[in-house]
Specification:
mainly alpha, Terminase small subunit, two-stranded antiparallel ribbon, 272 residues, disordered N terminus
């Protein structure tokens, strides 16, 4: 816990000097009234409304030369206002708030509503050693900025470490992994299987050096598949397949129906 005691009163400050004395300007008494209202409400907008000034003018005044004491009093007033907001939140968490009750669109009374979430939030942040495992649960703006800064530092360290790795080191790492894999294969296989594997690699390297191609080897299955259409028996079997009749895709003409069907009567000769 910090040994710094909270301030019990607003600090006195020298008002920001103004070049012109305007009726709607930020005169010294207006500046002091603004700081007092800010301490009471904790809201810049509410304090500006209390002195009938704009928030734009308040922030502009804070940036003017000679406004150092005014800015310090501003921060102290916000601390007072934040304490007041915390007190209001704790009062609502403990005593609840009165909300209206309606029935069929008509106001019939009120009831007290309590917020357990608000109560737990206040307990965790006001007594973190008892209700927040020694720390506040919520991360404030400073904590978020610090986390963002640390992420950038970690990223820069990782990129610097990756940049120090040369291609030769990458190839050496891959070669080590291959040798480890071969050593593991030698441990897990019998001597006869290992000898067969070494012989397979020797024959494969010899075939590659001689320019071996499976398509040109009569003993290879791919060579037999490639030469199969030249077999006379295969040609006869292909010629024996019956061909479809000419115009097999054309459909027979469909019978056309009369546009206006004829109505038969008893006098027609077509009746049996």
């Amino acid at each position: 816990m910090s040994d710094t005691k909270p301030a019990t009163h607003l600090p006195d400050f020298t008002p920001v000097p103004r070049q012109r004395d305007r009726s709607n300007g930020w005169k010294p008494h207006v500046q002091r009234a603004f700081i007092e209202a800010l301490a009471d409400t904790g809201s810049v907008a509410s304090a500006c409304r209390a002195v009938n000034r704009s928030t734009h003018g308040a922030y502009s005044l804070r940036r003017q030369p000679g406004a150092e004491e005014f800015a310090a009093a501003w921060e102290a007033a916000l601390d007072f206002g934040m304490k007041r907001i915390e007190d209001v939140a704790m009062d609502r968490a403990l005593n609840g708030v009165e909300v209206p009750v309606y029935s069929y669109g008509q106001l019939v009374g009120t009831r007290i509503s309590y917020s357990d979430c608000l109560l737990m939030f206040m307990l965790r942040n006001r007594a973190p050693e008892r209700f927040g495992e020694g720390r506040a649960k919520a991360m404030n703006a400073i904590g978020k900025m610090d986390l963002k800064r640390k992420k950038k530092e970690w990223r820069a360290e990782w990129e610097a470490e990756q940049a120090r790795v040369t291609p030769a080191q990458v190839r050496a790492s891959i070669e080590r992994k291959v040798q480890d894999t071969l050593a593991q294969m030698e441990r897990n296989h019998s001597p006869r299987a290992w000898a067969a594997w070494q012989e397979y690699k020797r024959i494969r390297a010899e075939d590659a050096a001689n320019g071996y191609r499976a398509q040109d080897d009569p003993d290879h299955p791919h060579y037999a598949k490639r030469t199969a259409p030249d077999d006379p028996a295969a040609r006869r079997a292909e010629d024996s397949i019956p061909l479809p009749p000419p115009h097999w895709q054309k459909r027979p003409p469909e019978p056309q129906q009369e546009e206006t069907p004829r109505t038969r009567t008893l006098k027609d000769d077509g009746w049996d």
